[in-house]
Structures are given as C-alpha cells and as structure tokens.
Amino acid sequence: MGCFQSRHRGKKKIAKLPVMFNTKGTPYLTEEQRRLVSDSWQEIKDNVEKVGVITFMNLFETHPEVQNSFMPFRNLKKIDMEHSAVLRSHSLRVMGTVDKFMSRIDSQEKSRGVIIELGQRHDGYNAKSDYFDMVGPQFIYAIKPQFAERWNGELEEAWLKLFQILSFLMRKGLKRAKNAK
C-alpha cells in the first residue's frame, strides 16, 4: 500500500525471555539494559506517534481479538484504522506512558507506581491481562527499522524485558483493582 507499515511487515515471532527478579519477586533490568533502552528511547521519541500507530496497527492485525476489545475500533477496516484520530490519540497516550516510565527509570518506586496505577485504571476498561504481553513484540517490530544495522540481540532483549516488566506491573495493578472490589 506504500505506507510505512506495509513496507516493514514482518511475521517473525519474538521469543519470550526469562525475566530477572529481585529478592522481592519484582522483575528488573540490568544496568546495561537500562542504558540501552534509555539511549535508544532518546532516538525513538522523535517518531513516537508513528511508532505508536505501527505498534497498534500490527497488534490489531496479528491479534484481531485485541482490536475487538477496544470499543472505538470494533469492526473498523485497516484503512480506516490507519487514519483514525482515536487510534493516534490512544497510541500517543501509551507512548506517553512509556516516556513517563523511561524518565523515571532510575527511580524504581516512581516508575513502577505509574504503571501499577495504569493497570488499576484498566480494570474499568475490562482489559484482559493477557493482552498486555502482546504490546512489547509489536513495539519492537515498530522500532527495529529505525535502528537498521545498529539493531542487535542485546537491544532487542533489553526492550523485550522492559515490556515484560511493564506487563508485570500492569497485571499487578489490575489485580489490586479487582481485589479492591
């Protein structure tokens, strides 16, 4: 179709990595992984809207059940989705949350609190926690072309682990919200 997404379509399955946990059972990134995601995030921020839209477009294409769980996106065709202001808005909010997390990455309590609260809010949307894990691989799919030959296994592993941590924290928040009822 000539759009960025169709030129970069790839169906490579990204392996799930074991997540390191600290003594409290909370996953974490190594210092080197934090450096890798922080440095690369500075470049990604320049294209954050495009990255967000590609992330969700690919998520909805590879997992249509996720698209149908979003009320505004139910039964929308791909072409309508690509030009949807609602999708752009949602993508920017998600990327804004990643940015907030990244800006607090050296302060674990603050960064974790932001994501746990977001998980709690997702209870009100009847979100399925299984869907949280699907975002990371789609995000990687969206950012990989930006790094071209600089992309490597260490950078991919760092981003996958970061999104595994985000999913873990979102689930924790969702569980808290459900238990509070």
Please, could you describe this protein's structure?
The protein has 181 residues and is mostly helical. The protein is globular and about 45 Å long. It has one domain (28-179): Globin-like (Orthogonal Bundle). The longest helix is centred in the C-terminal third of the chain and has 27 residues, at 153-179. The protein is 66% helix and 0% strand. It has helices at 4-7, 31-44, 48-62, 64-69, 78-82, 85-103, 108-121, 132-147, 153-179. Helix 3 (48-62) crosses helix 8 (132-147) and helix 7 (108-121) crosses helix 9. Mean pLDDT is 87; it is low at 1-21. The chain contains nine helices and no strands.
Keywords:
single chain; Globin-like; mainly alpha; about 180 residues; about 65% helix
The count of helical stretches stands at: 9
Helix content: 55-70%
Order of helices and strands: HHHHHHHHH
CATH class: Mainly Alpha
Strand segment count: 0
- Radius of gyration over all CA atoms, rounded: 16 Å
Name the overall outline.
globular
**What proportion of the residues form beta strands (DSSP E)?**
under 5%
Overall structural class, as computed from helix and strand content, comes to: mainly alpha
Mean pLDDT over all positions:
87
Q: Which regions have little confidence, pLDDT < 50, spanning 5+ residues? A: 1-21
